[in-house]
Write a structure and sequence with these properties.
With about 170 residues, this protein is mainly alpha-helical. The protein has a single domain (about 5-170), classed as Orthogonal Bundle (Peroxidase, domain 1). The protein has helices at about 5-15, 20-25, 35-45, 50-65, 80-90, 95-105, 110-125, 130-140, 145-155; strands spanning about 75, 130, 170. The chain has a three-stranded mixed β-sheet. The longest helix has 17 residues, at about 50-65.
């Protein structure tokens, strides 16, 4: 299934029925893919996916639901969104650096909790996330070469003075 279609469908479903967002938000407090009320909203999109990809859809959807209706108009790849959070964080940038480093080091069991915390902070700060890209990255999280973690580290710790608005990590909604 195409990640763009998954989130477009979830958004459309949420516009019709607020229960979609409520159930997916509640699913964030359970292990990804194990909260039965969420099955009806996610299982149609995960048929034929392997177990990790299935769980990743549930994880991304639960984080999406935490931010539903609170995002601003610009969406960003997760590392750029966290970098934006760091610039606006009142508790100091070291805290955000520490949380992001822990996220990069997380295995699939820890990933859910670390990602959920960061995305809820970004939602509170009205920082938009590119959910389809996040899902694609989660699907590749277990790669032995850790290319997603390396890509995210490069995006997060890059010199922002050399980054441009046309950076592919920053996406304007269409």
């Amino acid at each position: 299934m195409n990640p763009e279609k998954i989130f477009a469908s979830l958004t459309e479903d949420a516009d019709k029925d607020s229960a979609v967002v409520a159930v997916l938000r509640r699913s964030a407090s359970h292990e990804a893919g194990l909260y039965p009320p969420a099955f009806r909203y996610i299982e149609p999109y995960v048929y034929g996916l392997g177990e990790w990809r299935r769980k990743a859809v549930y994880l991304a959807a639960s984080c999406w639901a935490q931010t539903a209706r609170r995002e601003n108009s610009q969406v960003m790849a997760l590392p750029i969104a966290v970098k934006t959070l760091k610039k606006h964080h009142t508790m100091g940038s070291q805290n955000v650096d520490t949380r992001f480093t822990a996220l990069l080091d997380a295995d699939t069991d820890e990933l859910q909790w670390r990602l959920r915390h960061l995305t809820s902070q970004m939602a509170a700060a009205a920082i938009g996330i590119d959910w389809p890209t996040l899902l694609k990255d989660l699907w590749a999280w277990n790669s032995q070469d850790r290319h997603i973690q390396i890509k995210w580290a490069r995006q997060f710790w890059s010199d922002s003075s050399t980054a441009s608005v046309t950076d592919p990590a920053v996406i304007s909604p269409s």
